[in-house]
């Protein structure tokens, strides 16, 4: 089996089958749904929200969805400081994560997929995707890394394989 990421003539390429591309598109869609801002400010134009320019929110509570809470964790143990930090940063953090997803999604339609200039987006996307699925599966450090009958568990392992392959290729 060929490695999914390979440096060729100075370019970093993602070598993915059509099926792998469809799987990653599905993951992009799932992650986009999870990260969509549940309380967009109606006075902010859509284009500004997409760019993370929606400004500071009045009130941002800890997300009830455990996946969102894992992707956008509290920065402080103190609830007041955590709430203030969330108020100041959550909109732009969501926008950054959504921008990474958009880069990956856009590149999945290219042939070849040259990710040289977008490595950070791919790394962030793979990390966030694994966090999303790992949280859904309640994965712990003690969890088996062996394939199972559960497709979502196998997707989690596959994303880990992609992440490891990309990091190994970057390290040379």
Task: Describe the fold and architecture.
This protein is mainly alpha-helical. It is built from six helices and three strands. A three-stranded antiparallel sheet has the order 1-2-3. The two termini are 19 Å apart. The relative contact order is 0.16. The model has no long low-confidence stretch (mean pLDDT 87).
Key phrases:
mainly alpha; 3-stranded antiparallel beta sheet; 6% strand; 172 residues
CA-to-CA gap between the ends?
A: 19 Å
Helix content: 55-70%
Return residue spans where pLDDT drops below 50 for at least 5 consecutive residues: none
What is the mean predicted local confidence, pLDDT? 87
Which band does the percent of strand residues land in? Answer: 5-15%
Q: What is the number of strand segments?
A: 3
Can you give me a brief rundown of this structure?
The protein has helices at residues 18-35, 46-50, 66-71, 79-107, 119-137, 151-171, and strands at residues 5-8, 11-14, 113-114. It has a 3-stranded antiparallel beta sheet with strand order 1-2-3. By secondary structure, it is mostly helical.
């Amino acid at each position: 089996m060929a490695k999914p990421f390979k440096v060729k003539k100075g370019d970093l390429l993602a070598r993915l089958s059509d099926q792998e591309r469809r799987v990653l598109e599905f993951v992009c869609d799932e992650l986009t749904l999870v990260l969509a801002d549940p309380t967009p400010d109606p006075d902010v134009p859509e284009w500004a929200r997409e760019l993370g320019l929606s400004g500071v929110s009045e009130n941002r509570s800890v997300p009830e969805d455990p996946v969102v809470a894992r992707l956008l964790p509290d920065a402080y143990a103190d609830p007041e400081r955590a709430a203030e930090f969330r108020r100041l940063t959550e909109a732009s953090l969501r926008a950054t994560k959504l921008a990474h997803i958009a880069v990956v999604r856009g590149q999945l339609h290219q042939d070849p997929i040259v990710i040289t200039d977008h490595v950070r987006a791919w790394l962030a996307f793979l990390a966030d995707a694994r966090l999303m699925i790992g949280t859904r599966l309640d994965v712990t450090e003690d969890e088996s890394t062996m394939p199972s009958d559960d497709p979502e568990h196998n997707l989690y392992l596959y994303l880990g394989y992609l992440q490891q392959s990309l990091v190994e290729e970057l390290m040379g």
